[in-house]
């Protein structure tokens, strides 16, 4: 049975994205919000809203009892976690189910395995997915680390098992740097995730970040919807994403897509998922899996015409996938620019009041955002305030459209990354699709 009312346990553009799908499906929506977000657009657009706590995320958007209470008092039958916050918290998914509600996402046990990157790599290998060479499990002593590093070769990267958002990663080019890197990664991970567990991988010199979008239903049907190239990063965080990747051929795309889909079928995975790889010298190496909707999902929607959020809701309501793999067509090219409220020169957050707002429009232009003229961006949350997504029949047309859309875009009077994206379009490497995960930091920002 289709849901009647869904609590969206999130804020900003993603809360609105989920609301839009619900509205088109005739499902009522309940927004939850902190006291800092009472005038946010996701609250204004929802059918109902419930205040769940003070500004700090820990006391509001991460406050499980308050979110469950919002579901109880509004009479909702399901909870959509959005992206970030509680979306990859297996206990939350379980608790939601234990309260007789549906968690719109995968099974708690799948979230749990993939949420621990050490366990995720072990599982990936079992499922036949190739991984970046590295330690078999957690590393606790410097001696262990040296043995592994000597085996796989320097440079190596020390990563947090509970990592996310690019935090808790340290690179070591030599044995002398290694113990420092371990200590730094451990303390950063402890502070950010409450667990200092770390592991080691070979640090790849010039890979691209290629991720495969997966969708599976409760009947064992699993599809892949092509890849997204998210190599343009700063501090291991994505800035711009595109699909198809300029680096893959149709054949390579099909092979890696089929490998990912068949592995997920074996795994018994349901709902949306993204398998992230580093791609270098023709090889793919698994780094992690995200068991949720992804920030950059719109570019996949633009080239496939497939509404990922609607499909995600239908799957959780027990509906089978309506299409088969041979009916998935990749049409044209799409790019997403993450517009952050940040100083484009030093990336310092730039919250504050938006005095003027004029979003771009026209054919092939999509904005997913919760900002408006007069809106005051609170300082407590992620600095992503808008996603500009464009589609073109070819990459060339997509780039031309992106340039004119960025030129139309006005967000005054805060600092944003719009100018950074404009500068990217002036770069020969970007225009030619010639970049890897290190290029933006090593060559573009520091020429
Ligand atoms: P998070 O969960 O914090 O996003 P990921 O494991 O997904 O961490 O990695 C994020 C980014 O860090 C990758 O896209 C890549 O740019 C970089 N990275 C991660 N592992 C490696 C590696 N072994 N070699 C080189 N870069 C890496």
Key descriptive features of the protein:
five-stranded parallel sheet, binds adenosine-5'-diphosphate, eight-stranded antiparallel sheet, 15 helices, Dna Ligase, domain 1, D-amino Acid Aminotransferase, Chain A, domain 1, Rossmann fold, alpha+beta, 447 residues
Plain-language structure description:
This protein has 447 residues and is α+β, with helices and mostly antiparallel strands. It has helices at residues 12-25, 41-45, 64-74, 90-98, 108-115, 117-126, 142-152, 175-193, 250-267, 297-304, 308-316, 395-408, 418-425, 428-431, 439-444, and strands at residues 5-8, 28-34, 48-53, 78-80, 102-103, 156-160, 169-172, 198-202, 208-216, 222-234, 237-243, 271-280, 283-290, 333-340, 352-353, 356-358, 365-369, 376-377, 384-392, 410-412. The protein has three domains: 5-96, Rossmann fold, CATH 3.40.50.20; 133-202, 2-Layer Sandwich (Dna Ligase, domain 1); 208-444, 2-Layer Sandwich (D-amino Acid Aminotransferase, Chain A, domain 1), CATH 3.30.470. The protein is built from 15 helices and 20 strands. Helix 4 (90-98) runs antiparallel to helix 5 (108-115), helix 7 packs across helix 8 (175-193) and helix 12 (395-408) runs antiparallel to helix 13. It starts with a strand and ends with a helix. The mean pLDDT is 97. It binds adenosine-5'-diphosphate. Adenosine-5'-diphosphate (ADP) binds next to strand 8, strand 12 and strand 13. Adenosine-5'-diphosphate (ADP) is lined by residues 132, 157, 163-166, 201-204, 209, 233, 236, 276, 278, 287-288, 437.
């Amino acid at each position: 049975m289709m849901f009647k009312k869904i609590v969206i346990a999130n804020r900003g553009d993603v809360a609105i994205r989920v609301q839009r799908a619900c509205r088109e499906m005739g499902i009522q929506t309940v927004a939850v919000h902190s006291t800092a977000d009472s005038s946010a657009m996701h609250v204004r657009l929802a059918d109902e809203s419930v205040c769940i706590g003070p500004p700090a995320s820990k006391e509001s958007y991460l406050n499980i009892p308050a979110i469950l209470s919002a579901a109880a008092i509004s009479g909702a039958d399901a909870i959509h976690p959005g992206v970030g916050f509680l979306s990859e918290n297996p206990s939350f998914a379980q608790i939601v189910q234990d309260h007789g509600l549906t968690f719109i996402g995968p099974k708690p046990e799948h979230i749990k395995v993939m949420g621990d990157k050490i366990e995720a790599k072990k599982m990936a290998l079992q499922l036949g997915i190739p991984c970046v060479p590295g330690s078999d499990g957690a590393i606790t002593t410097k001696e262990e680390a040296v043995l592994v590093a000597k085996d796989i070769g320097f440079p190596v990267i020390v990563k947090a098992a509970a990592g996310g958002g690019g935090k808790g990663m340290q690179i070591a080019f030599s044995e002398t740097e290694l113990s420092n890197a371990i200590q730094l990664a451990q303390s950063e991970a402890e502070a950010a995730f409450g667990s200092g567990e770390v592991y080691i991988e070979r640090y790849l010199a010039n890979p691209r970040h290629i991720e495969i979008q997966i969708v599976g239903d409760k009947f064992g049907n699993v599809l892949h919807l092509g890849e997204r190239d998210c190599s343009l990063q700063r501090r291991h965080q994505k800035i711009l994403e595109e699909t198809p990747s300029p680096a893959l051929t149709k054949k390579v795309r099909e092979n890696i897509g089929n490998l990912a889909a068949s592995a997920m079928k074996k795994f018994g995975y349901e709902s949306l998922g993204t398998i992230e790889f580093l791609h270098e010298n023709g090889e793919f190496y698994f780094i992690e899996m995200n068991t949720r909707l992804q920030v950059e999902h719109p570019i996949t929607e633009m080239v496939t015409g497939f509404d990922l959020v609607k499909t995600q809701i239908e799957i959780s309501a027990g509906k089978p996938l309506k299409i088969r793999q041979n009916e998935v067509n990749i049409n044209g090219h799409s790019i997403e620019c993450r517009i952050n409220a940040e100083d484009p020169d030093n990336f310092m957050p730039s919250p504050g009041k938006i005095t003027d707002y004029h979003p771009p429009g026209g054919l092939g232009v999509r904005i997913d955002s919760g900002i408006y003229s007069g809106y005051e961006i609170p300082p407590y949350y992620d600095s992503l305030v808008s996603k500009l997504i464009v589609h073109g029949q070819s990459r060339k047309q997509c780039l031309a459209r992106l340039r004119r859309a960025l030129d139309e875009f006005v967000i005054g009077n805060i600092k944003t990354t719009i100018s950074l994206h404009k500068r990217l379009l002036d770069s020969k490497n970007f225009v030619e699709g010639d970049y890897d995960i290190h290029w933006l930091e090593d060559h573009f920002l520091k020429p």
